Amino acid sequence: MQPVGLRAGATSSFNSAAAGVPSPVVPSAGQLVRTVIPRRAADTITPWLPDDEESARRSLEFQGCDIPAAARVSQTRSGTVPAWTAFLLSVSGLFVSAYLSYQHFTDSRTLACSDNGAVNCLKVTTSQWSVIAGVPIAVAGLAFFAAMTLLCAPTRSALELGGLRVIGVVVGTLMVLWLVYVEIFEVKAICLWCSAVHLITVLLLGTVLWWRQSVRADE
What is the pLDDT of residues 72-113, one digit of tens each? Predict the structure, then answer.
């Protein structure tokens, strides 16, 4: 014999179904999570994402975030190494260019470099080619690296500046090639500090292209 309570409950459920009254629906765990967490909550939950990219993507999808949000997290992580490398190269070039700019305005009196033979920094930095259209080459280099430091800053907004980074570093590399030609064939002397700037620029070109390729591979 069934207990009276169970019979009454069964009879009540039967009567409700017969009367056309829908029985209550219990939400699933996924629905509860989607109700609590907004669909575009990537920025607020990113600090708690797992280290594995695939796990991070699944976590975002489970928590109700759209696929582009998960893709942005993957792109950000894949570009972390080239982004920081490009930033550090830009900062290094900024310091060297600042040193050369200071030497330019002080007549290179304290320039730490050889002043005779094939390696002659003083001859290069004080030649007629050290100023173009009234702008010292050292100052132009300083402005270039200041701009690249901002474009290569490891921030979320920098991800959208890939085109400007490529254009900037390509222009800088072309300028470096021209300056190397001037040193070898016009001034006939090499400046080690200038060569350091040239090397940093070429390395920056490779790093920016690497960064761009890493981001494209995740799209």
Answer: 444 455 578 999 999 999 999 999 999 999 999 988 777 888
Residue 190 backbone zone (phi > 0: left; psi -120 to 50: alpha; other: beta): beta
**Interacting residues of 49 by C-beta distance below 8 A, sequence separation 6+:** 55, 56, 59, 60, 73
Find residue 119's DSSP bridge partners: 190
| 123-147: burial string, b at 16+ Cβ within 10 Å, e else | bbbbbeebeeeeebbbbbbbebbbb
169: buried, middle or exposed (CB in 10 Å: 19+, 13-18, 0-12)? buried
Q: State pLDDT tens for residues 58-69.
A: 555 555 555 454
SS3 state at 136: strand
Residue 150, pLDDT above cutoff 50: yes
Q: Which CATH superfamily is domain 81-217 in?
A: VKOR domain (1.20.1440.130)
Question: What's the pLDDT tens digit per position in 108-120?
Answer: 777 888 878 899 9
Q: Which residue's entry shows tokens 């292209």?
A: 209
- Please, where in the chain does CATH 1.20.1440.130 lie? 81-217
* C-alpha closest to that of 163 among 203, 212, 217: 212
Report the alpha-carbon distance of residue 51 to residue 54 in Å, rounded.
9
